[in-house]
Specification:
Length: about 350
């Protein structure tokens, strides 16, 4: 675990001395990115700070009920407002990513801003694009790391229900409800603290996991029964979905979240991939069991990255070509990656 005290001193100074603090999460923000962003927002607002939030693009539907999401400025919806916020910020805190490319269209403005920049993240191999990088890949989520930081800065847990709920959402979504990822006994101690602060645990679970449309359930059934391909020689399963298929199930952003995890419940499958056709490119998600490093597949072949067992990327080609390319990548590299898994 990362020694946090050297960072908390510096962060405290920056929080105290900054007037306009801007919090930015990554492109296609997940529950951890939005959770950490909203939690830090709550904490800094309570310290009387002027705080703004930006997401590079739209949020997934299943996160839109969260307290404070309406205050997040979506860069691609309101570029002018976001440009102003970036230009007037004296401190920019970037949450849950460690490559500047994850800022999407906001990257140029952020990199040319004269604000002090801080990254708080838990992905491997951070790039050097910020004054301070607080990176701990041993925690399950950025939300877990943020809890540790704020608790030290605050001299004890920050007793605020919205803050606790936002962090709890980050922790459960990044671990698939404590099923995968690098959660530890420490994670459960933090969750115990969050429950004591007073989170609505059942409410959160219902809103995150039991809040989908009937169309989304049918899309999931279709994906599993008609679109899942098993490749026993590579212990791999993949699902692909075209834009037309998604449209026929009234797709909304976030509907395919979690699909990529499902094939991993099949006996013998250690690698799962999901291909979703977008406008001019394909969005990929990878999941694995054990030591099979899907982050390497994502970064070496699909312009992406992530964690050893959960990663993603984009590929600028048709769905059909992307799948053929994936099959070629598997053929040429599966044995090499699987070696680490023995
Ligand atoms: P998901 O499959 O849920 O979209 O993403 C899983 C993880 O993979 C994310 O938490 C993130 O770490 C990583 N990831 C997904 N898409 C990308 C991408 O396009 N670029 C990079 N660098 N990482 C990604
Ligand atoms: Mn995360």
């Amino acid at each position: 675990m990362l020694e946090l005290s050297k960072y908390t001193k510096e962060l405290t100074k920056l929080f105290v001395s900054s007037n306009n603090i801007l919090l930015i999460c990554h492109l296609n923000p997940d529950g951890d990115a939005v959770g950490a962003q909203l939690a830090l927002y709550q904490y800094l607002k309570a310290q009387g700070k002027n705080v703004d939030m930006i997401s590079p693009n739209y949020l997934q539907e299943f996160l839109k009920w969260m307290d404070g999401v309406d205050l997040i400025n979506v860069f691609i919806r309101n570029r002018e407002r976001c440009r102003e916020l970036i230009e007037q910020a004296d401190l920019i805190v970037m949450l849950d990513f460690n490559q500047p490319g994850r800022l999407g269209e906001a990257e140029k403005l952020v990199s040319s801003s004269s604000a002090k920049k801080v990254v708080i993240d838990h992905h491997l191999n951070p790039e050097n694009f910020s004054d301070i990088v607080i990176s701990d890949p041993s925690v399950c989520s950025t939300s877990e790391l943020l809890y540790e930081l704020i608790t030290q800065i605050n001299g004890g847990p920050f007793l605020n229900k919205q803050y606790a709920e936002a962090l709890y959402i980050g922790i459960i979504t990044d671990t698939g409800n404590f099923e995968h990822g690098t959660y530890s006994s420490r994670t459960f101690r933090i969750v115990a603290d969050l429950i004591e602060i007073g989170i609505g645990k059942e409410k959160v679970h219902n809103l995150i996991y039991n809040n989908f449309s009937a169309d989304r359930m049918r899309l999931q059934g279709y994906a599993l029964s008609k679109k899942m391909v098993i490749l026993p020689e590579y212990q791999t399963a993949y699902i692909s979905l075209t834009r037309d298929e998604l449209a026929s199930y009234q797709y909304v952003k976030g509907d395919t979240e979690g699909f990529v995890n499902m094939p991993l419940s099949i006996n013998g499958i250690i690698l799962s991939a999901l291909f979703v056709e977008k406008d001019g490119f394909v969005k990929l998600s990878f999941r694995s069991k054990g030591q099979f490093p899907v982050n390497k597949i994502a970064s070496e072949f699909f312009y992406g990255g992530g964690h050893m067992n959960a990663s993603g990327g984009d590929y600028p080609d048709t769905l059909e070509n992307t799948i053929s390319y994936f099959l070629k990548v598997l053929k040429e590299n599966f044995a090499r990656y699987n070696n680490n898994n023995q």
